[in-house]
DNA sequence: ATTTATATAGAACGATCATTATATATTTAT
DNA sequence: ATAAATATATAATGATCGTTCTATATAAAT
C-alpha cells in the first residue's frame, strides 16, 4: 500500500476516534497527514469510503492483537482462556484510548445515513462472537463474554482501566468457573 | 415548563439519539418540533446548552425508571435486587431504541470540544454507581453491575434484546449468588 | 529521455452549519 | 383594553462542509 494512503488511514483513524466522524472534516485529516486533499480523493471515493477502510483496518489490527494472545495459549480450561482474552482486551483498551468502541460509534452516527457502514459494524461484532465460538466457548458463553468486553470498553470511558480490569477478571472467574 | 420548550427537548432527544449530535442541525430540530428557530434560542443559549438540558432530562427519566422499580422491591438478597434492576434496564433498552448509550455518545463526540458535556456525562455515570451502592451493593459489586449494564446496552445494538436479557440474567446470577 | 502515474496548491461549487438581526404577529397578564 | 412577553417568518452573517476542477510539479516506469 502507498505510504500516503497509510498516513491518511492512520491520521483519519486517530481523528475520527478522538472527535467523531461528523465532527472532523477532511481538510483536518489531510492537514494532519501532511497530504493534499486531492490525494485523499485519489485513494478513497468519499469520506464514507474512507471510514469503511479505516474500520476494516482497525478490525484487522484488533483480531491480530487477539490472535497473538491466543497463540501463546499454553493453558486449557474455559476460565483461563477467557482470562487470557480479557487481558488482551484490557491491553487494547489501555493503548487505544478512552473514547469507547469506534465500531459502535460509527454505526451510531450512520444508523440512518449509511447502511454499508452499519452492516460492516454489525458483521464485525458478529464475527467477534464467532471468533469466541471457534475458541471453544459455547454460544451462550460467547455472548456473555462479548457483553463483558463491551461493558469494559464503555466503563473505561469513566473509570480507571486498572480498576475495571479487577472487576472484569472477577466477573469472568465467577461466570466461567468449571 | 413551557410546552414549546418541552416539545423542543423531546424532538431534540429523539433526533440526537437517532443521528448523533454533530450530524443533526438545529433547523431539523425546530422543524420536527413545529417551532420557530428563534424560539429555540429563546429557551436555550446554544446547541450545546440544548444538549446539556436534553441529557439532564434523560438522566432524570432514567433514574425515575429505576426508582419506580426499586419501590416494588418486596424482596431482599443481592441476587434478587440485582435481577430487579436488570429487568428495569432491559425494559429501558427495549423502549429506548438500539443506538447505544446517549450519554456516552455525547461524551465521545464532545471529548475535545466541550468540557461541560464531558463532565456532566461522567457525573451521571458516577452517580449511577453511587445509586447502586445506596441500594446496598458493595463498591466492587456496583462496578461489576455497571459493567454488565453498559455491556447489555452496547450489545443491544447488535443482537436481539431478548437474547441479551437471557445472558444478562445468567451473568448476574453467577456473579451475585450468595 | 519520454511517457505515465501520482501529488501538489488553490480555487470554486453548492450546501449546510450555528448564530444573530429584524420586523410582525400572537399570546398572556394586568 | 393596554402593556409585556413570547412566537413567528425570513434573511443575513461568516464559517465550514464534502466534492470537483484546474493547472503545475514531482516521481516512477519504460
Automatic annotation (TrEMBL), chains A, B:
Residues 2-62 form the HTH tetR-type domain. This is Pyrimidine utilization regulatory protein R. Residues 25-44 bind DNA. The keyword Transcription regulation applies. It comes from the Bacteria. GO terms for molecular function: DNA binding. The keyword Repressor does not apply. Keywords: DNA-binding, Transcription, Transcription regulation. InterPro entries: Homeodomain-like_sf (IPR009057), HTH_TetR (IPR001647).
